[in-house]
Amino acid sequence: MQDKEEERSLINVEKKLSKDGFTQDFNVSDGRLQTIGHDSNKSYGPEEVTIVDFYRFEGESDPDDMSILYAIECADGVRGTISNSFGTYADATTDDFLRKVDDLGKNLKKAHK
């Protein structure tokens, strides 16, 4: 039996999300969510994106070293993940984009289950 900490590791959550169809990696560039990969170059505005779920993780040695992983679904059905530091160390570009998505009311709260 896995302990709760191991269950909540970033790698295990990414594996679960991948099994659930969240296979694309995203980043934010020029105010748009971009797919990452050699075979894909799609981009999406905040109005085309839904935050399906998110997970927060604390660093092993420093509780201030936190990150957050978002499960994202786009209007055309593309599903994937994007991560960001949480709090002080957050990437402002990614944070601003995801805040716009949330402000549009596009947060479905664990709808992928």
**What characterizes the major β-sheet?**
6 strands, mixed
How many discrete structural domains?
Answer: 1
Straight-line N-to-C gap: 22 Å
Kindly report the average pLDDT value: 83
In the sheet with the most strands, the strands line up as: 3-2-1-6-5-4
Class inferred from helices and paired strands: alpha+beta
Q: What is the H/E order? A: HHEEEEEEH
What is the general shape? globular
Strand percentage lies at: 25-35%
Radius of gyration: 14 Å
Low-confidence stretches: 1-6
Question: Total strand count, please?
Answer: 6
Protein name: Phosphoribosylpyrophosphate synthetase
Organism: Hymenobacter elongatus
Structure description:
This protein is an alpha+beta fold and 113 residues long. The chain has one domain. The protein contains three helices and six strands, in the order H-H-E-E-E-E-E-E-H. Strands 3-2-1-6-5-4 form a six-stranded mixed sheet, with helices on both faces. Strand 2 (32-36) and strand 3 form a beta hairpin. The radius of gyration is 14 Å and the shape is globular. The two termini are 22 Å apart. This is Phosphoribosylpyrophosphate synthetase.
